[in-house]
Each structure stands twice: as C-alpha cells, then as structure tokens.
C-alpha cells in the first residue's frame, strides 16, 4: 500500500511527546526516529496532529477517584508547567493542530474526533509515549470508531520494554498495521 495515495485522509498522531513524559524514556534513539516520522509526514502532505495531556491550574478536571492523574503534583501539566511543553525536537509548526486531552486516550476530554471528522481523516498513524498508555487507549477507542490504524512500533516508547514488545507484536496487530518509522516513511515519500 502506498501511504501517499490516501495522504489527505491520513493523519500522524504524535501523542504525549512532552518534556516531562519523554524524559522518563531510556534510550537516545527514540526522538530521532520520531523526528523522521514527523518529517516524512510533513513532506508527504500528511497532517501532523500533536496530542498533549493538559489541565487547568488546580486540576479541576481530575477526580480523586482517578488513581493516575490524582497522583500528579500540584501544577503538573498546566499552562504554567514547562514539562507540559511539546519536546522541541518535534514541536508543532504554526499550521499544525495541538489537541489537549484530559485523560489517557487521545479522544478522552478532547476535540480530536471533531477535528478528524472535519478534515475527512479516516486513517490514523499512531506514535507516542507510552505504548501502554496513550497509544493503547487511543488505538482501542479509534478501532471502535472505525478508523483505519497504523502503529509505528519504534515511534512509540514505554518505560517497560517487555510491555511495549507484547503490545506491538501481539496485541496491536489484531486492530492495526504495525510497522517501523523507516518503512512507513519510505511508503509516505
């Protein structure tokens, strides 16, 4: 399949690649690979959508029943938090959309689905941190919403390499094409 054929119906989602999240991922090869995916998408005319987790000051969106987000320190992932910024290596261009979500899935508490529908996007290419968090949750919800899915296995990262491997090799292939950044970029070009 040639990615370019449906470039106008495809979008690359770069999810949770924020300063305070990327810093938890070991290995120096992740960001350069992701930069390659972003550059390939831009060159092919494929929209790049940056998905970030973000809250208002004081975290009024976070329930004390939410184990993950209620454990965040005060001020984390608010407009005042420098760790909430998209990593500068893949920073959004002025013509690229940044979508703020309030939970793990890119769809939860965001206007992602509205943006995708408005642009006629039917194929999502998923990348981001963490494979067991935003990528897994977004993939499941996107599959239920009937999006065609591709996962860039090495464009995703997780602090647990074994969990990453199991998801990309055994779980994700049931609902998505799983490929590498290099292979996808070759097809996109």
Automatic annotation (TrEMBL):
InterPro entries linked to this entry: Isochorismatase-like_dom, Isochorismatase-like_hydrls, Isochorismatase-like_sf
Domain Isochorismatase-like per the UniProt entry, residue ranges: 10-183
Pfam family, one: Isochorismatase
Record key words, sorted: Hydrolase
Highest rank taxon of the organism: Bacteria
GO molecular function: hydrolase activity
PANTHER family with a match to the protein in the record: ISOCHORISMATASE HYDROLASE, PEROXYUREIDOACRYLATE/UREIDOACRYLATE AMIDOHYDROLASE-RELATED
This protein's name: Cysteine hydrolase
Native species: Streptomyces endocoffeicus
């Amino acid at each position: 399949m040639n990615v370019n054929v449906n470039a106008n119906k495809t979008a690359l989602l770069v999810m949770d690649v924020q300063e305070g999240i990327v810093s938890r991922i070991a290995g120096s090869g992740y960001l350069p690979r992701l930069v390659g995916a972003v550059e390939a998408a831009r060159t092919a005319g494929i929209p790049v959508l940056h998905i970030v987790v973000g809250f208002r000051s004081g975290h009024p969106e976070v329930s004390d029943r939410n184990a993950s987000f209620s454990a965040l320190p005060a001020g984390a992932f608010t407009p005042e938090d420098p760790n909430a910024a998209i990593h500068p290596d893949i920073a959004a261009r002025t013509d690229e959309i940044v979508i703020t979500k309030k939970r793990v899935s890119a769809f939860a508490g965001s206007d992602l689905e509205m943006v995708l529908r408005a642009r006629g996007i039917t194929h999502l290419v998923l990348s981001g941190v963490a494979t067991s968090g935003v990528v897994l949750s977004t993939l499941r919800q996107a599959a239920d919403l009937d999006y065609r899915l591709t996962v860039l296995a090495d464009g995703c990262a997780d602090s647990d390499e074994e969990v990453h491997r199991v998801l990309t090799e055994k779980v994700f292939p049931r609902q998505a094409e799983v490929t590498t950044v290099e292979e996808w970029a070759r097809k996109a070009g």
